[in-house]
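If you are new to this repository, start here. Below is one unmodified record pulled from the training split, so you can see the exact layout before writing a loader.
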Amino acid sequence: MSAPVHVERADDERLSDFAGLRYPERRMHLEVSGGFYVGEGTLVVERMISLGAPIRAVATTPAVHERHRDALDRVDAPVYVLERAMLNELVGFDLHRGIVASATRPMIPDVTEVLADPQVRTVLALEGLNDFENLGSIMRSAAALGADAVLLCPQCADPFYRRCVRVSMGHVLALRLGRLPAWPEAATMLHAAGFVSCALTPNGTTELTAAFDGIERIALLLGAEGPGLSVPALETADRRVAIEMANDVDSLNVAVAAAIALHAAIAR
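And here is the target side for that same chain:
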């Protein structure tokens, strides 16, 4: 724990973890290569603190610091306090939540370790999920509904990018993650570990209400918004599962579909 550090300039080099947050491509390269990530907003930062994330720095306004002093006093890293206009200049947009924190980036292990754990029975296997909001929403649902792990293919977006962490309300930081290879190799690994792969698709031949009966280990496969799952993912799936819908609606947002299917799988 250390005393707050009052900063007078947005270009202070001590604040470099937070400079130009509005530029996603540059930020993703900087954060991945630098081995850190950024959390935004009081709920996310407090969750980072409560989870014991290895925080590098915090930047906040005087008002937010005062309201959350008890939590910020537990941070064993510099807490920089600067006026709101200066904080906005630093990050490059109106940061109305008034606080950001950086922390050492967690490693995402190879999927082999996750699949070998007998306690892992229900997983989400994501292919090409490259929208940060959808990915963050899926992470929040996975935490809320009790998924044992979320598995990401090489084309998935960075789960620790700021927008994903924010939409997940920080819950991505507490989830068990694994890194899958691309399909069809991913399917081979899932099947070898005893998982029944259930591909969520509007053209599924098995209705959700009957999809998971008698299955011990389930991998729910979900693809990106729009294109959905690839041909190799669909062709290697054990079951193609559709969510029953009314009023001629042809599909759901992928994050909504993930939550509905996961709820059914967990309740089996």
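Two things worth knowing about this chain: The radius of gyration is 20 Å. The chain has a mean pLDDT of 95.
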